[in-house]
Amino acid sequence: MEKDPIIEKLKEEFNTSILEVTVKNQKRITVSIKPDSLPGIAGYLYKNAGFRFIIASALHTKKGFEIHYHFSRDNEGLVLNIHVILDKKDPQIESLSNMFNASNWIEREMHELFGINFLNHPNQDKLISEGNWAEGVYPYRKEFKTPEEER
Amino acid sequence: MSFKSHCFKKSLWVFHFGGASCNNCDIEILDCLTPRHDLERFGILLVGSIRHADVLLVNGSINNHDRERLIEIYKQAPKPVLVVAIGACGCTGGIFADSYVFAGPVDKIIPVDAYIPGCPPKPEAIIAGIVKLVQKS
Amino acid sequence: MSMKTLIPIGPYHPLQEEPELFKLYCDGEIVTDIQWVTGYNHRGIEKLSESKTYEQVFFLVERICGICSTSHPFAFANAVEEIAGIEVTDRAKYIRSIIGELERIHSHLLWVGLAGHFLGYNTVFMWAWKYREPVLDLFEMISGNRNSYAMFKVGGVRRDIENYKIVAIRKVLDDLRKKTDLLTGAVMDDPVIHARTKGVGILTRQDVIDYAAVGPTARASGLEIDVRKDDPYAAYPLVNWKVITSKTGDVFAKAEVRLLEMYESISIIEQCLSHLEKEKEGDITVKVTEIPEGTGNGRAEAPRGEVFHFVVSDGTNSPARHKIRAPSYVNIATFKKSCIGQTIADATITLAGVDPCYCCTERMAVAYDAGSGKQIMNGRELIENSMALTKKLKSAHKERP
User: The domain containing residue A46 runs over which residues?
Assistant: First the structure.
């Protein structure tokens, strides 16, 4: 099931960075990677493989801060989700906005809503929070009880 | 005849303030000017500045960011001014009332003279509402 | 040493004057930089979605934007049905596509009207919106509401389009074709409109790729991307139609793409109606018992481009996470490329060319003087500035022998 050419290529170039590959069907694939390898893999997809960046979705789960970067290969209708899990206490990851402009705003938004820090972002200014909520408040963060508290 | 009724006897000049809205109401308001309903034949004009307006139309759920602007607009409006809350969002906040950025329905921020519910209210409903309001004042 | 002046760009809506979306920095008459300030339209929809059941979310996402109201339920339905592995009936597919295409028509007509207004052609505005009314009447007949039609549900559609309604729909479409000919002729053949829109607000193919722009904004620059063809859904693979592109990437190309797309939409609807007449009435939903754990990537082609919904399900009755990306989110950023280097008078039409759905994203704004901090031109004045240029060009054209 993992015979898709793009997966083969990614494994060839970035073997040690890939943690897991989930192929739902030939048009929907999710690849979990180590956060450090994001710029390399995203660069490969954008520059070499002709993918278009759709958007990035951040989630706050018990595992930590997860981000799905969604890429599309339009002529095949393929959506490739690159999935990373960031640290619970200090979530940060390299910004993609120096590579292409498409991710500039969504990284600013994820920073405001979740408090994720995008390293080397050209201008991590406020996008939507001005006047709406205070600095240091991250409205989309959730409160998770620790296992001790749940007992 | 009271001063207020005297002011609103003839053609009404309307200023529109959109809060955090989905634009349905904005489009239906604009629709009132287009050939099918053509409010301009009654002298009802949409003006670009609140200082020229007799009526302030407010629609959209008001978030924290808009709240200050709305209060400022209301202060700048030369009194008497009639305030109309349009649409479910304007009247009660609609489906967005539970949001963390919701700053209360319009009547919690400024006094409202008329409510025109609907999502969005049809142009006929908007016109009927304005007519009722003018007759009442 | 030239002083940089900051000019705000007024709201897209010709009636609103309130700040804030774009701050234009100008050197004399030329725009040199743009900044964007937002927050005015933020409603916290993604978070609201987590507290609603899947059925309730349809009503919520419909109200993200009034103009592309159906594209969001469309993409959301695609995402949830992907998680649950559901395929809807053929009849539901045709009905979904009919609603989607009727919306495309009404949205493009709305755009033509507003673009005409910005250029100073108020008659075009009135005509375009007058011809929109029969389409809204059709929506009212089919769904009960002129906007926000609530036609979608997980597993199908909520209302059928019975055969007796099809006659009325065909009549409106026939009429609409003639009216579109009229509008297209009036807009495409006018030399002053050519002067105002050709070569204005150019977005190159490389810009489009860099900003990952979508929809007519991208297709006007030669990029042939359309979710309906690339990642087919609903009835689009079952009928014949083509993707419209143009080459020059200027405002004229964007207008051309939108006008020609209307003909394709009319054709798609007519084909879907023919199929509906052959299908059995009433077969519009499949039974759905639960949404299992999983993730779904749902896409739809809204009038402005690709709408993308990412839904994470944890097996309960509500989404665990619902990420929504409207096309204007990526398209508006291209303004930085298409507007810089233009004159102030061209700024409004360049902005309109992208067809920003400001509630899908945020709302437009006004400007200030960079040096003194004073406001130079507000939104209304910017539009009037644009209209004045058209007037000047019109009289120059008349004077030519």
Answer: 5-104
Tell me the per-residue pLDDT of B46-85, one tens digit each, with 9 for 90 and over.
887 888 888 999 988 888 888 888 898 899 999 889 999 9
Could you give the count of Cα atoms lying within 13 Å of C223 in the half-sphere of its Cβ? 27
Predicted TM-score of the model (pTM) = 0.91
Q: Is residue B7 part of a domain?
A: no
Q: Judge whether B9 lies within some domain.
A: no
Question: Is residue B101 included in any domain, yes or no?
Answer: yes
Distance from CA of B125 to the nearest CA of C (A): 13
Does residue C316 sit in helix, strand or coil? coil
CATH class of the domain comprising C45-329:
mainly alpha
* Complete DSSP assignment for C65-94: -STTTTHHHHHHHHHHHHHHT----HHHHH
Domain boundaries, chain C: 4-41+350-399, 45-329
Confidence of residue C11 (pLDDT cuts 50, 70, 90): very low
In chain B, the percentage of residues whose pLDDT exceeds 70 is 92
Total domains in the fold of chain A? 1
Nearest beta carbon to residue A75 from set C212, C230, C321: C230
Question: Is pLDDT above 80 for A62?
Answer: yes
Structure tokens at C100: 């989607």
Residue by residue, DSSP assigns chain B as --HHHHHTSSPPEEEEEE-B--SHHHHHHHHTTSTTT-GGGGT-EE-S-GGG-SEEEEESB-BHHHHHHHHHHHHHSPSS-EEEEEHHHHHH-GGGTTSTTB---HHHHS--SEEE--SSPPHHHHHHHHHHHHHH-
Q: Residue A14: which CATH number?
A: 3.30.460.80
Residues of B in contact with C12 (CB under 8 A): none
CA distance C75 to C306: 9
What is the structure's pLDDT at B35?
85
Predicted ipTM beyond 0.85:
yes
Dist CA B24 CA B42 (whole Å): 24
Number of domains in chain B: 1
Residue B2 in any domain: the answer is: no
Residue C26 pLDDT: 79
Q: Smallest Cβ distance to B34: which of C42, C126, C357?
A: C126
Write out the two tokens for B50.
């609140």
- Residue-range definition of the domain harbouring residue B102: 17-136
Cβ of A130 within 8 Å of Cβ of C37? The answer is yes
**Quick check: C38 and A128 CB within 8 A?**
yes
Question: Which pLDDT tens digit goes with each residue over C24-47?
Answer: 787 777 888 877 766 667 788 888
